Amino acid sequence: MKVLLAALNAKFIHSSLALRYLRAAAEGEFDVLLREFTIKDDPLRVLSEVVGDRPEVVGFSCYIWNVVETLKIVRLLKKVSPATRVVLGGPEVSYDTWEWMERWPEVDAIVIGEGEATFLELLRAWRDGGDLGEIAGLAFREGDRVKIAPRRGWIEPLDAIPSPYRGHLEELDNRIVYFEASRGCPFHCQFCLSSIDDAVRYFSLQRVKEDLARLIDYGVSQIKFVDRTFNLKKDYALELFQFLARYPGRTVFQFEITADILRREIVEFLAAEAPPGRFRFEIGVQSTNEETNRLIRRIQRFDRLAGTVRRLRESGRVVQHLDLIAGLPREDYRSFRKTFDDVYALEPDELQLGFLKLLRGTGLRARAAEFGYVYMDEPPYEVLANDVLPYEDVRRIKRVEDMVDKYWNSHWMDHTLRYLRAWEFSSAFDLYQELGDYWDRQGYGTLGYQPEDLFLRMRDFLRDKGLRRPMVAEDLLKIDYLLTRRVRPRSPWWVPTLDKGGAGVGPEVGRTAGDSGPGVCPAGTGGDGVVETRRLGVGEFRCERMDSGPTARGGRGSPSGGGGVSSRWTGVSGFGVEVEGEADVVCGSSDERGRCGRHPQMRSGAGWTIVTSTRFWRSFFKRFGVCMGDSTGWKRELIESTSAWMRWSSAWMRWSSAWMWSTSAWMRSTNAWMRWNSAWVRSSSDWTRWNSAWMRWSSDWTRWNSAWMRWSSVWTRSNAAWMWSRAGCPLSKSG
């Protein structure tokens, strides 16, 4: 008997784990084919391929994202091939099974729950003419009647199920591989189908390691574990993390993690030894509202969860994806705003804002009337409103979801977004809400866009909003564009305009304090004068308050013994040289509370002095406490990327230099060509005329290159002007 297993995946890169389990269980006795399509494929094309295989039995895997499209194929299939038997399986049809059988007479049987054993017994019964009523976990037709057998018990041990990954690996090329090390979930979240299967069972570590090694050695790019709580069993999870971290390969692994119960030993191992980027964690937060979590029977310690997320984020080794659900019981717009801000403050790599779906078989669907839920009748059963969240608020939160996905999750303008959150908006939620409302007013949601359009629309939104410091925000937007985009924009909107009088031009390489001019700060007290100036963007700044006393260095105009800040810093100079050293930050004119005066200075052991204006520090770093604190002393850390612009500028100048070397080589080559051509000219007057045209073209090239260099010079001056407008003062080298 020929059997075809088919799935309509959400995307081409997805693969069906369920069908591969069924094939592994049945292919020893039956001729089993597996075909995967997508929900966007033309139904007639899918039908043609299914019928072309001439199967006697077709099995479809059904979920909320594909059941509607799947049933369209089933209906078409029965019209053209009524003798073909159709069997459905999957979580979407495992609940309210009677309703599915009644509504869709084209369906011959439905496998309920775990399907490996039930599906194999069904195939045997159809082949041998057996009694379907004796098969546990099956809904079937007997004449005009629908019959449903009792559910089958859980399969134990799980190793009795044949591995889906002992063959057919070529099907997984360019696809995400779904994998499970366990089945079941001990928690009882009322919105989740996994709460029904509370018997947690594990595959043996030996089998899991063998299957994973086989997949890694084959070269699959990504493996996503579908375990509901991968870290539930500490020793089991730690051993697999260690195995995957140390196994050679380039495969990326994604896990669903309950972060507040992730043990310290695992966290510290991951923070110390996980290869950067190899592990991705999906962490469900859903809500920080305690009443909401109680109603949905979700036990969660947000403080512990936050500590785990921060520790892993600081390590830079694990990518973290955090989930929220809007529309949960008793969480109104104001409460969800707080939930969003609580989670956004953790700065996950990705933040997914989803909307509650009342899935068949879940507790919340059974209690929908109690909470006044209005939801879609057809899959995916998404909530439209409830008793505390009207539809208008749902619409507004939808706009926040769209903006978070486009702007934060893309990480194209992180510096801009961090500044806006810290300085211009009262909360992160308000930032994305106002941005989403602006998109809605402008009608952008119906228009296509390129990455550059996101920057331009953000710039237009900020101008429409009216910020306290618009130039800072726009300059950060330009920096973000130059850092993240490799494509020249349609219009170079980031180039600043130079002041014709030269007043806007800051210090340049080789310029000294004696040259005077705008923005050149005098030397600090205590000895050596300024020899020349340099521009520096501080890339990393860590500092702590020193004790006041005779050894504390006083700055320009500061009282004797004024408190300073001992620090270690790194940066990149205007000409691309990285510098690093110990430094003393001196707050000039500091008062008894340690507040800065006009010219705080930073003197490094590497012989550099950073002189910057208090106004700059206050306008950009105020909330971090740089050069600000109480008289008892304080310890702060500041890590900012103000050097980004200078790194880009340095790269630009190196590229320009390379261009000139290339041009020089071209001219030398042209000179050699002319010497060789002189002999040739003597034998051909026609060639001489052609060569004359060549020389005119070469002259044009030289003039064009000269113009290019003039433009590069203008760019350099423009960049100096930008740095002066941001910092106000130069970096000076002590003689």
TrEMBL record:
One of its GO terms (molecular function) is cobalamin binding. Its cofactor is [4Fe-4S] cluster. Pfam families: B12-binding (PF02310), DUF4080 (PF13311), Radical_SAM (PF04055). Residues 171-401 form the Radical SAM core domain. Residues 1-133 form the B12-binding domain. Keywords: Iron, Iron-sulfur, Metal-binding, S-adenosyl-L-methionine. It comes from the Bacteria. This is B12-binding domain-containing radical SAM protein (Modular protein). It comes from Kyrpidia spormannii.
